[in-house]
Amino acid sequence: MAVDGVVKPKTRRAKRFLEDRAPKLVENSKNAMIMKGGNTSETITQALRDIYAIKKPNAVLYKKKNIVRPFEDSTSLEFFSKKTDCSLFLFGSHNKKRPNNLVFGRMFDFHVLDMFELGVEKFVSLKDIKNNKCAEGTKPLLVFAGELFDSDNELSRLRNVLTDFFRGPNISAVRLAGLEHVLHFTAADGKIYMRSYRVLLKKSGCRTPRVELEEIGPSFDLVLRRTHLASDDLYRTAHRQPKGVKPKKKKNISHDTFGTKFGRLHMQKQDLDKLQTRKMKGLRKRRGQGASENGETPSPKQARTQEPLS
Is the previous residue joined to 242 through a cis bond, with omega within 30 degrees of 0? Predict the structure, then answer.
């Protein structure tokens, strides 16, 4: 039942469901929906399964085919996004004009914000590489190599989308043994190479272990085909943060490049004449010294006491 546009739940389960979707100062972890189009190839089907294995448990996999054309009409994607409360999506399709197609995208307020269509030229599945895999739910380390990720506007935005898609939940700390999965993206020669590695910490004879990388899959050679970028105004609106999230500025406190904290103290001007020092005979004031310092002429008796001894 809705009154003035507000939906009132009838059960406790519905109440918890609506509270989970309600706006928050700190939002929930971003979920991704992974779906395939009306026509798919075996390569795309396996690629979607492998990416779902990396994203679990923050992902929803649609097993049925969906006749959707994201760049022509995104209404269906927006409907499924609102239904499953997913702000990220991955759509796979295959046709003669665009074979082995993957579309990465993200939503803002359940409307498409950015989309990138990538063609799969080479693919190696998880099951094709016979190595031990990382545990489910492992937060990966993301590495982006190549100057194009900084100089090219589209690839820079693509890096942002891939970071959103694979970053996983926000955490405050992680132990060294938990850093066991690396996703490496390289932009070179008009292509994007995605590789997945498992981090091996081996004995090195000292406290710091020796690090080796072992490829575990999946592996992609991708080429950028089509893009749909949000306008600058909409992009700024999507990045706007509520006031409660922004950290309060502390006066006279700064940090350097390495995170070292510096503080500035403001003190009143000190009178060094009244500064208490160690009591020594050489630091005692002689009679008449105070009067001479104030500009007064010492008396003859005081002058005689200030004459040096022969």
Answer: no
